[in-house]
Amino acid sequence: MRRARIGVDLGGTKIEAIVLENDGTISARERVATPKQYEATLDAIASLVGRIESKAGVSATVGVGIPGAVSAESRVVKNANSVWLNGRPLEDDLAGVLERPVRVMNDANCFAISEAADGAGEGGATVFGVILGTGVGGGIVVRGRALEGANLIAGEWGHNPLPWMTAAEHPGIACYCGRRGCIETFVCGPRFEEAYASRSGVALSAAEIVRAADSGDAAAAETLREYEDRLARALASVVNVLDPDVIVLGGGMSNIPMLADAVKAGVPRYVFSDVVRTRVVRNAHGDSSGVRGAAWLWPLDAP
After folding, report:
1. What local confidence, expressed as pLDDT, does residue 278 receive?
2. CATH class of 123-283
3. 111 alpha carbon, distance to own chain's centre
4. How far is C-alpha 257 from the chain's CA centre?
5. Is the alpha carbon torsion for 188, 133, 279, 110 positive or negative?
6. Can you give the pLDDT at residue 303?
């Protein structure tokens, strides 16, 4: 039986599994709804892996991306917004039910790994992967390896304060983390929609706001320019600290046309350098980046 890699994306609403072939193609894919209970989640992943392995006719390594992290000391999950995972030894329990070693990593790191390996960040020595969705996350890949950090929070740029706040922005709204003015509260998708609603009195989705801006809606255009500037400021602070070769935008908000170009043009205004060579690009693999990155947690020659 030939060897391949399985990636699993354990999300809050769905679990997706793929078989990633050695040439980077996906030969099988399945999704199921995510159970909101720990043991049922283990069973769902085990069933998915078994079915997809059989369908593709492979014997595979398994990598799993999760909305949290596995503590190196306690071996349990922490910081997961899928709260039924917190405090549980997910990596060890999955290894038991699948009868093989399993690697588990934060889903934003998996996104960054995928885009650095064979996506929009390919060729960059240091890649910063950005998730812009309901929340804001990030992952750092240096020469092909994810940088997790001593506290497993490397890349958590969303819980730093928005830099260079204006008087109107200060002190910022409350964040679920317990602080105010976090980057996440300014550049997440819901905040973009709220900013437009407060200007116009009309509730629209992010995609509708962008279309309205293209059609000459002044409130929509102002909301979009404000969002682009806030994102440029936030990422400029990342450049000042990390100085990455490439920043890859992912998540639902990355689908805004020309967002990457607008942010790339705005970042140099705030970076402590006369020349900014960092590229800002949209992701190459879309919604598949996270699950592909989970598969990439294992090398091609893994036993």
Report:
1. 98
2. alpha beta
3. 5
4. 19
5. positive
6. 60
